[in-house]
Design brief:
0% strand, mainly alpha, single chain
C-alpha cells in the first residue's frame, strides 16, 4: 500500500512495474519505521516517513528507468531527423 501511495504522489508516468512498486513500498515502510522509532515518534509519523521515503524511491527509480531507456529528463525519447 505504501508503494501505491508513493506512485500516486510522484507526478508523471511511472515506468516501474508492480513488483518493484511493492518492493519500494516495503523498503519505505521499514526505513520509515526505523527513522520514526529512532526519533521516538508515533505511528502516524512513521506512516508519513514511510510514504515520503517510498515516494523518493519511486521518483529515483522512475528517473533511472527513463534515463536508461534513452529518454530525456521528461521521459521522452529524442527524435532524430535524418
Amino acid at each position: 500500500m505504501i508503494g501505491a501511495v508513493a506512485r500516486l504522489i510522484v507526478p508523471g508516468r511511472n515506468p516501474i512495474g508492480i513488483l518493484l512498486t511493492v518492493l519500494v513500498g516495503i523498503a519505505g515502510a521499514i526505513l520509515g519505521g526505523v527513522v520514526a522509532n529512532a526519533l521516538g515518534a508515533g505511528t502516524l509519523v512513521a506512516l508519513v516517513f514511510a510514504v515520503v521515503i517510498a515516494a523518493l524511491g519511486v521518483a529515483a527509480l522512475t528517473a533511472f528507468q527513463s534515463r536508461s531507456a534513452g529518454g530525456n529528463r521528461f521521459g521522452r525519447t529524442r527524435r532524430h531527423n535524418y
